[in-house]
Amino acid sequence: MLPIKDVAPDTYDSMYKRYLELKVTLSSLGVNLTELDRIKG
């Protein structure tokens, strides 16, 4: 996902927002994201 940031910033922003939504959903379901998280902010 990071290489696309330079090529298509609008697409990256859209994907990143969806990624954050997914993290919130998984967290609310009790999934431990520490081991799954590859993107650091």
Nutshell version of this structure?
By secondary structure, the chain is mainly alpha-helical. 63% of the residues lie in helices and 0% in strands. 0% of the residues are buried.
Walk me through what this model shows.
This protein has 41 residues and is mainly α. Helix content is 63%, strand content 0%. It contains 2 helices and no strands. It has helices at 2-7, 9-28. The longest helix has 20 residues, at 9-28. It is elongated and about 35 Å long. The model has no long low-confidence stretch (mean pLDDT 84).
Q: Work out the helix count.
A: 2
Which regions have little confidence, pLDDT < 50, spanning 5+ residues?
none
How far the N terminus sits from the C terminus, by CA atoms, comes to: 13 Å
Strand content: under 5%
The coarse silhouette is elongated
Chart the SSEs and their pairings.
Layout: H1 2-7, H2 9-28
List keywords for this structure.
elongated, 0% strand, 41 residues, 63% helix, mainly alpha, single chain
